[in-house]
Amino acid sequence: MNERAAEPLSDPSGRDDIRGEAAPEAQPGPARARERPRSRRALLRPPLPRGTTVRAFVRRDFLVTRSYRVPFALDAVSGVFLLATYYFVSRTFKGVPTESLHGAPSYFAFAAVGAAIGAVVETACTGIASRIRQEQLAGTLEILVVQPLRSFDLCLGLVGFPFLFGLFRAALYLGLALAWIELDLATPSWPGVLVIFLTTGAALATIGIISGAFTLLFKGGTTVVGFGLFALTLLSGSVFPISTLPGWLQPIGNASPLRFAFDGARSALFQGSGWGADALWLSTFGVVGIPIAALAFDRALHRTKRKASLGQY
Fold it and tell me: Where are the domains of the chain?
């Protein structure tokens, strides 16, 4: 530091000079008014593109899940043991009539479709709630919600990898089941199977987004959501026909959206037709329900932010 620079710092009057020299000159009113919008826009970060957000979430969740290789492999093949159980139960009661099995040639074929669709149902309905719970436990949910993300994009990102993984499991279960029952591959309507799977995921995303909102508002809500989904899946004809239920429970099973998913998949696989009405109903349910569910999730997220309870679980 030279003498000229050190001299004002040691002199109290010099500090006044420095303070005076450092003070910026007042700008004219019109110039300051022109600069204010630029500074305000600089503080507002635009939301990230939807495709970029979902891909980033999917890649992150895949890498995290793959890092635990043994649980990842066991989760992928866990349904095979369930299929084996249905297979031997079907062999035990081989002479049971199949008129009420919605075109399935055996009970095993009937239950295998229920297991495959159940993998998609589980992912679509509980994926968001489970991911929110994991983010809370890891302490990363607060970091996510302060990013420039729309609430609906956050939903899509959180459920992206679980949904794709559920589709993979469903395809694996169906492939094994069709090999075991030796079904003629010319019988199914493969476009119908694909449409039913996709519309099922879209329709049941409504339930999944609402379950995510429920988890935000009521801590530990994943247990309630899981129990309700298990009961609804049983009543909707996943592993036994709705006609076998008591009379007072059959209206619940017939009104469930899951029933259209199970019936549509069985019609497409075992009859090759008759799945169009089920796919249309599932599509309608998704188109109407998803915007309502997304609004509910957005309100729940804002309420949780106001209460500063995002990290509580």
Answer: 49-307
